[in-house]
Amino acid sequence: RYKNKWAVNLKKEPNCQLALNNFDAFYRPYYGAEWPSVRISLLSMPKYCAVLNKYGHEEKIESQLGDLTLLNFTEYARYFQQKKIKNNQNGATLELKSESKEVPVVSKNKKLSFNPQMTKVYPDETHLKETAYKADIEVLEPYKEELYKDNLNVFVPTEQVYSEKEQIIKEEMSINAFQPRDIGINIIQPKSVNISRFVDAFVFPKGDISQFPQPRPRYGIHGYYLMDAASVMPVLALDVQPRDNVLDLCAAPGGKTFTILQSLDLESGGSLICNDLSQSRLNRLKNVLSSHFPPDISEQVVITKKNGIEALTPVFDKVLVDVPCNADRHVVTEDDNNLFKISRTHERLSLMEIQKELLLSAIKSCVRGGTIVYSTCTLSPAQNDGVIQAALEELWETSEIEVAVEDLTSLADLFQDVFKFHKQSKYGKVILPNLLNNFGPSYFAKLKRIK
Ligand code: SAM
After folding, report:
1. Which residues are CB-contacts of 239 (< 8 A; sequence separation ≥ 6)?
2. Which residues does a 6 A CB cutoff place in the pocket of ligand 1?
């Protein structure tokens, strides 16, 4: 017999398991009944979307994607928006769901009828939730300090280190337990919602887990880019106009940069600065640019390697700040280089401070009347709404800058058939992974600089 916490020879828990334990403690209380199905989705194969490249070769794209049954989900949202406007004009009530949906697919000439019945052959969500509950072998009670002591202490035998770990546990509790406070943040309603007509993104229908073929270049240019469909949403929320001056503050490896460049017109006055701290990731970004855009476009993108928390001048109309975060999907599936490794605890716990500084820097780089989108790929309430609240509180106390949060409900409503949004977020929108459409997680919040 041995006591777990002194058993030095016990096998160390894998980092992915440490991440899962942490999520069980901090996400379960927040996401409640949704958590089991989100948890099992995080552990399952993700789905991708193909964002079309307007600089790609049409015939090549058609030959690769033309025969697949795909939904152009951005076109689908634009279609609903038109319908909504029309219905509102007629004074009719709006019903977005479960209609016969005819939406354009890859070829501009070809129409494909999207069959909503298709999802019926797959288990419904109640069934999935039940399965997830059953798969949840160990039922962990949230906020139990014992759980943390065991996880962190199982291979740490001495009293001295033990108390150091206890400090970490306390810090973990105080940092991760985000409670929304009413600090008088101004939440404004958008006058209208615009979904850039230059962004066309395709997904396989709900419940279909087919994979896209890797894009093959024609004349050196790839016709589409494969990425998490939930990552398209922050860019759509940014609402890039062709002549905007755009800053992508944490840009590498470049999926969102690619999407921004679909709407931006660098040849008639638009501009884009892509910044990142990591040289290796910037190299990947350069590859994305050179393999998707002709040289006269890619060479106009300015690439900088700066610490994004350094002050910048307020010259940008649109600023995207896609911060480093827990990266939930990565940490529960990849043990190497995992942020939940015990030796990276301090780095992990300092994330929220860095995220807040990056957001403040993004706000300070934006012109009055301009837009800032803050985004993450984590479900952590502290790294999402928590950072928005902390940054705005600090601005309030230390500067004259005034910022309002734009309500994204109308935008999210147009995508409710594709994404599952969490109902309770306060400032931004959270896309929850779910097995029928395993995208996300993604959080995005939109701020308007007023003064
Ligand atoms: N926007 C990217 C995309 O769509 O492909 C993903 C960005 S990733 C979530 C976060 C990025 O922030 C990483 O590439 C990381 O190197 C960068 N980063 C981390 N700390 C930074 C800092 N202080 N300043 C600038 N970039 C930073």
Report:
1. 194, 196, 318, 371
2. 250-256, 275-278, 281, 307-309, 322, 324
